[in-house]
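User: I'm new to structure prediction. If I give you an amino acid sequence, what do you actually give back? Let's try with this one:
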Amino acid sequence: MFAEPFAPHGGIDAYSARRTLGTFSMDFWQLFLRETLQNSWDARAKVTGAVTFAVDAWRLNGAQYDALRYEVLRERPAGSRVDGLLRGEAIDVLTVTDVGTRGLCGPTRADLASTGRRDFVDLVRNIGRDPAKGYEGGTYGYGKAVLFEASFCATVVIFTRTLVDDRPTSRLIAMALTQPYDLDGKRFTGRHWWGMPDPETGAEPLTGERAERLALTLGMNRLQPGTTGTMIMILAPRIEEDDSLRQVVEALGHAAADYAWPHLTAPTGARPRLTVQFTCNGQAVPPPGPARDQRLKHFVEAYRRCEKVLDGTVAPSSGYPWTVQEVQGSRPVRRLGILAWRTHLPGAAGAHERADAEIALMREPRMVVEYRNVTPDSSGQAITGVFIADPALNDDFAAAEPPTHDRWQPRRAQRQRYARNPVSQALNRIDLVFKDRRGADRADTVEAGNRPGITRLASLLGSLLDTQPGGTDPRIPAPGASSRADDSRFASPDGRSTTGSSTGTAGRASGSVHDGGHAQTGRAGPTSPPRRGSVAVRFHPQARLALMPNGIPCADFAVDLDTRSAGGGVVLVAEPLIAVTDGRPEKADDGTTVTVIGWRSRDTGEFQPGSRLTVTPATASAWSIRVTQPTDAAVTVAVRTEVGTA
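Assistant: Good question. You get back a string of structure tokens that encode the predicted 3D arrangement of the chain. For your 646 residues, that looks like this:
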């Protein structure tokens, strides 16, 4: 073991080295995955080559534990966490491996000048990032602190296979950080290395066959013969009290899907491929597939549309449901990047939560920097999009990132005091796209006459419910409210014969449907079950827009059923109506076709085609009614009981 003493002229201690990450805006294991994965990707051996990135976690067996304790870490700082750990019995480890990368090449001494790459000393010896390398990764820079923060004892073992003078070279070395301490009248920084004793560097890496043999004994066997790359073992990964080792691996897999999906979904030949693998105790832990994930699939499509514009394959365009546009800067006028976005039916956000509205920000190397929240859609739809910084401005956007690479901070990219900042301009213009859109949706302008019917009605009714907390209308009675309204088959909170709206902000209906095909509604009173042979129906205030697989637009109306008093069975009938702005909803005329496609259970996924649903006390309570959406009209839907069925 070599413990680094402070030089007479001073130095940086291990505690300060661990704090170089600064603050970060995400879960720690997300940060860990992002930092390690981006550096692995940037370290690929060939720009057009493929990289395999693997995370493996397991508990060391007896032989692996003995090799770690008696061969690698024979001497240990007295009273340190790593010393206490190796006096115990069982140790969990987590390894991060990249294959198809350069490995840690270059000299092993930091004081020797060299004209080539210095990846080994940048990771193992130095603190910080060499500015000569620009903004590429592959050597961790300040981000190396994430490796030590991930370990309970701030200890890692590094095994790499690289090329030195075009010859394969294997290297193995261990590192640990502790608090600074005094020993025998000397002051030590808290930085430690284990390897071959050396009178000048203190410790040099094991090399050649000895490094290969010890790596295999430790279980670091991801680097197959003939390949290059790096494998880093984290001793005793930090696990929260209620978590398990497998949950940490699962979290890392989800983080890879969230932030590296542009590479995980890249079509063959279009961009270098990245393969990710995750295991825990020898069993595979597959990450989510971005192209199939309900949240990520729209981001994937937006990314592909941005790429086509950047490649010059297609021009920016705007056509339902996608908008693809250039984001332009001023003074000088230049392209800052490409923005592609769309609105769509919200996923699993829940009926009473606001829909997500976020844009994935990225640059080279095509890792998501941040999901930026933008102004939500006024009709309750989700907004999903991607912004890719123009390649000519990549260095500006890279300079705006803190060591954690988790956001763009424009002040970091300010090169001259009064110069226009492209990062600030890009973020402001992205925000304005959606602020202006929200304002346009709320205004009843002449333009509304040229919009599809559903948008026109949203403009007229959007302010009615949009500001209600939880997305519900306080005027809607709870199921079972029993004040008598007018003798109408359809009822609404205001007593008019409208029961819903496909605007997404103006679903305005509720009422309990009972025998005889009549509905009860009124002001909310004491909640009680409907009487025998009846079903209470409550509409959610926001309808959802969707496209069917055949491309036909439709609207989903969410309803909750109180089935406690359904008795032997009640048949509910959904009837589509055309919403008008100056009167009651009407049946569609011969020129407008609106049909009920069916009822779908939001609890079980069960689908009942057609307008009728037979309800018993055992029927699921949460349903959606799907109706076709004409391009020139706004639809509502009403629910009644079929006479004689109760």
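You can read the tokens as a compact description of the fold. Here is one thing that stands out. Residues 297-442 form one domain.
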